[in-house]
Specification:
It is a single chain. The protein folds into 2 domains: about 30 residues; about 90 residues, no CATH class. It contains 2 helices and 7 strands, in the order H-E-E-E-E-H-E-E-E. Strand 1 and strand 2 form a beta hairpin.
């Protein structure tokens, strides 16, 4: 009797999970992003200048209320909108774990300095 109840409970749970998955896939149609996520749309690199690479990246984000598209650990991410408004870029943790973050003098962007001394500069549009 208990084995039969367990079987029915597991069947019910499986059906419930299937229905939730079905609803979720129906709500998120092709091309839509889940709330709080980002994807890279375009990535262009220009290495025409010696010892310098200019990269331009475009991301598409579906941020939650109070968030805006930003950068976290060198990847596009939804961050607190107050960070972007106040231009305190390093608060969104834009650099990788082993890199140091510094604001540019005019607060137009930030630099990520690697342990070997290589510097990556990012400016906001």
């Amino acid at each position: 009797m208990q084995l039969l109840r367990l079987a029915w409970a597991l069947t019910g749970a499986a059906v419930c999970c299937f229905v939730i998955l079905l609803i979720h896939s129906h709500v998120l149609k092709e091309g839509q992003l889940a709330a709080g996520t980002c994807e890279i749309v375009t990535l262009d690199r220009d290495s025409s200048q010696p010892r310098r690479t200019i990269a331009r990246q475009t991301a598409r984000c579906a941020c939650k209320k109070g968030q805006i598209a930003g950068t976290t650990r060198a990847r596009p991410a939804c961050v607190d909108a107050l960070i972007v408004r106040s231009r305190q870029w390093c608060e969104m943790t834009p650099c990788l774990d082993e890199e140091g973050c510094d604001l540019l003098v005019n607060h137009s962007g930030w630099t990520c300095t690697q342990p070997g001394g290589r510097v990556k500069t990012t400016t906001a549009l």
